[in-house]
Amino acid sequence: MEMALRAQSPLCSRSRPVLVVRPANAAAALAQPIVKCSRFTRSRLVRCMVASSDYPKRNPRRSSTPKPKGTASRGYAPRPAAESSTKKIEQSSTDEGDLARSNVMLGSAGIEQTGTAEESSEVDLSGNVPSSEALEGVNETENEEEIDQKLPPALSSTSMDAESISEAADQTSTVEEASEVDFSGNVSSSTALEGVNEAEAEEKVDQKQTSALASTSMDVESIDRELEEYRGKISALVASNPGPSSLASNQGQDKPIFGVHEQDKSVINFHEQGISIVDVSKQSQLAVGVTEEDPTKQTTIIGEQDIAEEAVEDIDSKFFEDGQLALSEDDAGTSKYAQEEPSVAGDQLRISEDGHDEPEIQELVQKDVNLQVLKRRLEELANENYSIGYKCFVFPEIVKADSVIDLYLNRSITALASESTILIKGAFNGWRWNLFTEKMHRSELAGDWWCCKLHIPKQAYRLDFVFFNGDTVYENNNYNDFFIEIESDMDEHSFEDFLVHEKQRELERLAAEEAERERQAEEERRKEEERAIMEAYRAQAKAEVETMKNRLQHVLGSASRHMDNLWYIEPSTYKGGDRVRLYYNRNLRPLMHSNEIWLHGGYNNWTDALSIAERLVKSHEKDGDWWYANVTLPKSALVLDWVFADGPPGNARNYDNNGKRDFHAVVSKSISEDFFWVEEEHRIFKRFQRERKEREDADRRKAEITAKMKAEMKEKTMREFLLSQKHIVYTEPLEVRAGTTVDVLYNPSNTVLNGSPEVWFRCSFNRWTHPSGPLPPQKMVNAENGSHLQATVRVPLDAYMMDFVFSESEEGGTYDNRNGMDYHIPVSDSMAKEPPMHIVHIAVEMAPIAKVGGLGDVVTSLSRAIQDLGHKVEVIIPKYDCLNLSNVKDLHCCQSFTWSGTEIKVWFGKVEDISVYFLEPQNGMFWVGCVYGRNDESRFGFFCHSALEFLLQSGSSPDIIHCHDWSSAPVAWLYKQQYVHNGLPNGRVVFTIHNLEFGANQIGKAMAHCDKATTVSYTYSREVSRHGSIAPHYFKFHGIRNGIDSDIWDPYNDNFIPVHYTSDNVVEGKSSAKKALQEKLGLHQTDSPVVGIISRLTAQKGIHLIKHAIYRTLERNGQVVLLGSAPDHRIQSDFTNLARKLHGEFDGRVKLCLTYDEPLSHLIYAGADFILVPSIFEPCGLTQLTAMRYGSIPIVRKTGGLYDTVFDVDDDKERAREQGLEPNGFSFEGADINGVDYALDRAITTWYDARDWFHSLCKRVMEQDWSWNRPALDYMELYHSARKN
């Protein structure tokens, strides 16, 4: 990022500040062209040359307080003494005449505005000096006499003895007998003094000065005290006038006090000491004593103070402490007060006759003296650096952070000697921050010195720079560049933290902007959705009103005001809102023998259902069996609807409902019919809104609870992840936070470094990509616990991952790198985020749109879990004609391409919030009505090739290409053999084996070409390690268990179960689900243990053990529910016969549902007490994981993923503890009936004999995390390992 530095004119390229006082009129200018102050010194008149008028206007910025010498160092190399620049100096002197003539022209233009162009001898604003002709004929003596007469009282009334005067004169005569020196340091011509009788003028001045001083008896100390009093008055004056014109306000705002204004100014020339002409700008008018109360008063000029020789050495500490560096024309011109009108009308600034402003002028003169000392110091630095061959130098000599410096370059001894344009290009802190380019200008120092002003930020500890001509010619210190060390609180380490914070702030800003855009888009979407919903509600309300009208018309046709000898209403005339008495004659009616009679009523054809309930009482005023009730008619009633019953609502058994036609009485309209229907429509509309709000509130509360539970589960899982290898390595504190120091504790006895005499710790951050690089190897020391070794690490603020390995020596040797995966620990509270990885899954199944087995579940759930970690995930599958498109959002055809002579259409949509691309070859190979079973090897091979071709032609470049099982195994070798060399070079191939039973040849070839391979559990990976397809490549083979989608399988949000529950109310939730399950399947509503079996019926799933377990459970007075089907029709037929037999023999105790039923599976998981999974082999298994999610206890055979996830409550306590878990089920070994009986009997006995403990076990398994939280972390480790390799 290039820093836009303010172009600021350097110190020695500025015009000499001038104090100008214009005479009241032209005549005064002729009579009094020059005012000379010669109080203590005798010296020649010193001409002050100013910078060229074409110098660019800049806004100066003051430097900070200079530093002591010797602190900072410079990185530019010395150069042998260069040839003298005499020619350049001579040229500068020669050019002086041209400059003077130019100055005369510019000065004349300004003077003509006052009508005194030819006769004026003043110096104009641009710093131009008068030509020597302008000074000819000036009677200097007369001028001096006039000035002496107008000396301020403080001086005119003061006298000194001759000795003191002589001493003061000797101390301050610093430029005695000096020839004229212009401000650029060049020796000036003496012709400007022609016609001036200098000796005579000085003699007269001395005489008058002696006379003036002799009038009092004050000594030098008295004068100093007097001056101090004036300074005190100045301070009081400044304090009483804090406006923009005051010195205090100018200094406080870091604004220059003096500057050459852009308008013409009068000139008063101070000589004898070589004091420069100082221009008083508008913002500093207070300093020259022009008061706003009386702008016509004249200004008094006071001579300069003594110049001490030590001022040269004191310049850095004194001058810069005042915040006064050098002043240019722009100081006034760019001031925010520069446009204000001066307090003196026009240019008529007069010399004040009152002496109140004398201290102000004296202070200004002192500042001017300091500027001369500064100028002299810069000349010395320039000469010193030039004499030893240094090409550049800076001022102040000690560079501090958060300051302004002037940087000088001697063009004549650089590669840019012949260039007319000089620029500096630089940056800070090793070229790492704030790159800038600034133009340099010719300075007024003697020689070919160019300069510019630079601001040093407070975060800088080093300045790096080169010089160039704006094109291709560079001066770069012989390819070493120039650099300057900076005194700063910042160092390399703290600067790293600063960069982290800067980057974090930038990321936060970008994130905030993106979040705001998303919020606005979401708000617009929500508003549009709200409008659509409201329109739908209004349309629905209108439709309901129309339906009500039609029904009411039908009812009105059968309604009346009474039925003879059956019912009537008093009074006979009534309307909505009236309270009436309704009579009923129960004689010869269904309720004639009832003890009680109740009226159950409503209105408008039961619009609000049953809304009136009144008990009738016996009427003693009427003959016969008449009963009555007092009823308040609803205000909006057009028809009163009712029936009679023998009890209140909910307890009545017998009714008189007018032969199932109900009773209806016409109600007179209290409002117009049209208005009634408008009101009714509005009422319905409001009801819809109210119901919607209630639903949304309930959903929001449930979502908040769900999110909290998921967050707690994820945090718990992360802790378990960190503790999972505590027997090998862990950290203290356990959670590593950025910006802190942690201890790493390592137990080599459980690793390949067991027995090594020493262990070395090698660490870095952010997947070994941190800018600081790997840390130096650190020898580990014994920890306090004795069994572990310890190393201490400081974690950077921008670390999001801590990476480390261990070695047997400092040089390396044997490494413990976790089998090539390295050790990684996430870092929290980092200022940086892990860059997202781009993962593409190529598969032939995906739940829920194309699911056949567990493969489809894994593709969807793993993709969602990785995406939730912040990575970009996409899936490519075939576009079958049997897809369940109802679960695809925004499906549309986005492009097409041709491969192998076939057009392939590409469709895009969202499935479970995952981006999915559907490939549809137009040759019809996927229009066969099924996923598997039709020339699969040829179809899927074509699909794999076309998927890679799609990535190539679409310009995608994924980091990971993840293919699954034999069906997409060709992706591995096609990519490595073709596409990695032809446009897709950045990817790594990860291959997952879900089931080794199918496609061994394709799996073996994919194992040979992939970068990493996995299977779906650790134990299964060991079980198949000797397989011919895997054994040669076992070094890159890893077992990562599957997880379940905790959003799909969630008892708290499951719409297929009667009561939603969590671990807190698992007993009540499962009890309700059991009753619903028993009722649905026709089982007895008894308190019995229910064993559920949800499985494909294949030999792999242990169907002989399933049959035996059914009978064993029935023997123990339990109930059995089986859900599943067999792809083999023989097995399906066998189980059909078994179901017929069991249903007849054990009616109400067993139910076999030989089909696929997703809603029923949810109810079985929730309603069963146990889930049986007796697989002969099981790569992972999702059934036992889902069962525990719903609080059902798994009963499994110890194999594959079943062994990795189920820990027997009696036999696996220690194994569970090693995994950071508690026992969670019942398991058995072997494949015979004795094994299954061992586990099943213990489970059922626990249910009968230890019900409370069983319920606590249900709660425990629900609180274990079997989602994709942990597997997703393991897969990301694998992905990064593949990328590293």
From TrEMBL:
Pathway the protein acts in: Glycan biosynthesis; starch biosynthesis
GO cellular component: amyloplast; chloroplast
Reactions performed catalytically: [(1->4)-alpha-D-glucosyl](n) + ADP-alpha-D-glucose = [(1->4)-alpha-D-glucosyl](n+1) + ADP + H(+)
Coiled coil, from the record: 500-540, 688-715
One of the Pfam families matching this protein, by short name: Glyco_transf_5
GO molecular function (one): alpha-1,4-glucan glucosyltransferase (ADP-glucose donor) activity
Cross-referenced SMART domains: CBM_25
EC number: 2.4.1.21
Biased composition (Polar residues): 208-219
Protein name, as recorded: starch synthase
Provenance organism: Brachypodium distachyon
Protein encoded by which gene: LOC100825259
